[in-house]
Prior knowledge:
By secondary structure, the chain is mainly alpha-helical. It has 6 helices and 2 strands. It has helices spanning 2-23, 52-59, 64-97, 115-135, 138-151, 156-162; strands spanning 99-102, 108-111. The longest helix is centred in the middle third of the chain and has 34 residues, at 64-97.
Amino acid sequence: MRLLLRSTLSLSLLGCISFASLAQTTTPAAAPAAAAVSTPLLKPGLTKNQSYKKYLYQRYAGDEQATRVIRLFAHRQIGGKLWLGTGALAIGFVASQTGTKTNSNGGTTTTTVSPLGYGLMLGLFGGVGISKLARYSNEKLYQELSGYDRDHAFSPNVQAKID
Length: 163
């Protein structure tokens, strides 16, 4: 009986201490105000001698949320380019395999790909790649960040993706 009582009291004390430690932590500091940045946000293509993403990373160096959004857009743009590159390689490979080939026994094999097959590959890879590049373009990133500078909030779609 005493062992059970001691165990219960020990666990209760440990739980209270851990709960009290949570209550004594400081609240997270508010994100640095974007209003502190005195210069207006540059549009894509107006940055000189550096990429637009590098400019944005430097501008929002202390703002974790903005940095996450920049990283999200950068990753999605890379993903779109990878989809397009993979599609080009797949279509190139399939195109190189078409034609008539003779094997060692003297038999021939003819491989053809219908236009529907090329259309499906182009539609799949091109559709996903172009869609990603259009939805996560630098212009859309500029719109999100200028809205963030103005309202200190991102659109619900972008906010859901960075949470």
